[in-house]
Automatic annotation (TrEMBL), chains A, B, C, D:
It comes from the Bacteria. PANTHER family: CYCLASE (PTHR34861:SF10), PTHR34861. This is Cyclase family protein. SUPFAM superfamilies: Putative cyclase. Coiled coil: none annotated. The lineage of its organism: Bacteria, Bacillati, Actinomycetota, Actinomycetes, Micromonosporales. Pfam families: Cyclase. Signal peptide: none annotated.
């Protein structure tokens, strides 16, 4: 039997007709750039092959993983940020975290995403390779990008904003991508409002903090987090790998992302995909 | 703008026409049943709301995650198991693990899976609610199941074998699902050969160990792991939640699974999905 | 030069004249009995010899330690327990823990202990090998023990109460020492008051919970913790190894214990010593 | 009863006559300077007061500790370093670490130390506040220091070498103490031989790496580790706090150090003490 035979399922037919998968997740490696605000990524082998060999010659190696949930490519659950003591929907933050986990608004409540995704390649619209350090991407920049690409953004979409900063992820100097001194480009309050008005489901960026960080200020205020997570219940995805989709000008795609069901957590590492049908 | 407008992408059209998503991953909670061979699942909030409030009234909570990679629903990379000192393809296990990570055959080399998936509901074919403890599912059982369901299994497919044991996952007695004393149902060497002959891409089960565990013997020998991982390079997925797809008789679907790109690890927690087009 | 020459320091002279050291700490091993209320003990080698060899042939192995601070032999800081929202001295528990660490009353505030220590071998006084499971050691038992041993207890002393339960620490069935179903012997509210009246500095036991646990009740109420930690600021030491000192009838000694200065923590693993001059 | 009454134990009498304790351990805090070669120090509260309140109003908070064993003030076990595949005594390093722990030469084999300790205040002898960055302390420097202090060093002693570098531990710039670019002062191969010839039991320093690090070279070769740990079985203690003992000119004392009995580990965090009788 040919397993690529036409089935009665439209989705499966589309999959079996052939798809191209773009990996939007960064590899998780010890020593990779990450925010100093979160527990660092660690991975080690407690058991190696040969430590314990079974009677039949078999042996198994295994891992211990230690990490914050906001390191590497990750999604922010709505429990992550509060404003004046309130989470999204007016939930009392202090009460919600009793027990050391968020039964409400934790990352286990984030449904898997299989949705229309749109890449907004901002520097391409600005005629640059990358937005400068600390540059605030404006609503006008977003409009210009949509216009150039002919990819309108609508309700329920997942919008990924490329600043070009992601090219520094693999820089030898691991502090460059974090950008504490230089600042990092991204949207600010106005860009967040632009996204909220379009009622997107989630928004992502190729930077650690998603939003614009002015030089030397770090994470002192994060207005886009407040507007998107707290005010509008829009999920944020950070540290995305967007260079490859941008290079191939894949601006519209099926966006796939499945957060781990970490019960009560404020975020989850993810490996999102952009998937398109092959010609 | 209607974002569900017909696009030029067949896959995105199928997605936007409506899909039903079945979650095949177990929630990750402190205290859930897991194999004692792996570091236990832990999750805690180092920072809670109110610990550090920004000038504008904003506050962020975050997590620390500590876990083995073979706990909860997870995938085994080919680096996980060796036989007589060799990994799949004859790779020398001792050499491959120098440095404390598997550059070859680590879980970062497992490509995201968007493939035809087949659920084999074995107890349904046997006329039972669940296979008995320690029962070895035979090739004849698998053939009978395929026949009853009319879902042939072919090259590149992902095959999920339901034993019914997954109904114990939420049992109050957390040791029942692990089944050390009782044994656990699953395929043995013969069932593994059946899968390998069909050249499947990956195989999963609703149990911790994937394969049949005789009563009281634990993981003393694991022939299916050897045949599938080492001999044939077929990935294994364990601790799947298969009750819901079985209940709805969804035997064929688009299987989605995206392992975390944990560089050099022997496995990864995953949250696989079975997706079907809505009528 | 003889380094054991008489110095001008009385303490050093006593040390150099010869001392016998009793180790009162349990080895910390993966899988040892511990309370299920605390993160389990884990230890692994991220780097092994040969993973990275220096130019000169040198190589270093190292460890990753993951554990609760109330596992193995450990001391409870005053921050560990609150009653009606108050820590010792009326400190507001909710306020004290903001920031995720106890600047006040954390284990870093526990000074190293070099003090008179007294072992109270209760079963020896009762004419038994061990107190029965769930037995509450009474003030009369403590008085009888002091009397038999001729070791009065006074202000500033460290008092170690042997119940004999510690002989189960190495039992093959790792659940016996924890004693959830059987109960565990120890003092109750009355015994705690007896200790508090004598103004001891710290009190210890050869059990996980220090105090009497009735069968099947687990840690549902812990009156001795309240009386000692909260009401009187007396430190508790748990999971002590007291069999050897008891065997040698060493009832009075120099007690040495140096908690790790874990800033803000509620406890610390320790390896206390009983030291006596050699004849 | 006066508990300070003269007992029949010489050591306890000396203790009860009054002692002054110098704390030679650094507080363990998140973000403190540490070697990038080891898993970073992390500490968090999984349970806070109020998360779970017992019927009687009681509540307990607890911790999760995640750390390398060579961070903060710590001792190196003999298992830590190998040379040409051999540990101290010719033990085969590869064989010794099978199972992921060192049954031989692990830190659980390091006996508690209650010994004569000698502080060698090298910069005081050199007429400086601190040795310069990258300065190699020579045998002549050590001799001059012993001579100035009139504190000969002999078999079984613990020798603590002050370079003055420890004053940078609390520097705002957390990279200064690590000293990767600047280099760090300490002994080299010759100083290690000087110590080995005197058959000391252990040697310590106020720096992370114990020995001299030339500017920019990091830990590329560590000859003193080889000579002391591998060739002579002499333990090393790093990141000591020596400013206070130096200030008070306490050059000879009872040295107390009790490593945690971490079964099979290559090192342990410690909090060593220098103790002297009060006048």
């Amino acid at each position: 039997m040919a397993t690529t035979a036409r089935t009665t399922d439209r989705l499966l037919d589309a999959v079996q007709a052939g798809v191209t998968i773009y990996d939007l997740g960064r590899p998780l490696t010890v020593g990779m750039p990450q925010s100093p605000n979160h527990p660092p990524f660690g991975l080690t082998l407690p058991r190696r092959h040969g430590d314990m060999v079974r009677a039949d010659g078999g042996s198994a190696a295994n891992d211990l993983l230690v990490m914050g949930t906001h390191v590497g490519t990750h999604v922010d659950a709505l429990a992550h940020v509060s404003h004046n003591g309130r989470l999204h929907g007016g939930v009392d933050a202090a009460a919600a975290q009793v027990g050391g986990r968020f039964e409400e608004l934790g990352v286990h409540t984030v449904a898997p995403m299989i949705r229309r995704g749109v890449l907004l390649d901002v520097p391409a619209a600005l005629g640059e390779e990358s937005c400068p350090p600390g540059y605030e991407i404006t609503p006008a920049d977003l409009d210009a990008t949509v216009c150039r690409q002919q990819t309108p953004v609508g309700p329920g979409n997942v919008v990924l904003i490329r600043s070009g900063w992601g090219r520094l992820f693999d820089d030898e100097d691991r502090t460059r991508y974090v950008g504490k001194d230089s600042g990092v480009p991204g949207i600010g309050a106005d860009g967040a409002t632009w996204l909220a008005e379009r009622r997107v489901h989630a928004a992502g960026a190729d930077t650690i903090a998603f939003e614009c960080l002015p030089p030397g200020k770090g994470h002192s205020v994060l207005p886009a987090h407040r507007i998107l997570l707290v005010d509008h219940g829009i999920y944020l995805i950070e540290t995305l790998a967007l260079e490859e989709v941008a290079r191939d000008r894949v601006y519209e795609f099926t966006f796939l992302m499945v957060p781990l069901p970490l019960f009560g957590a404020t975020g989850s590492p993810v490996r999102p995909l952009a998937v398109v049908s092959r010609d």
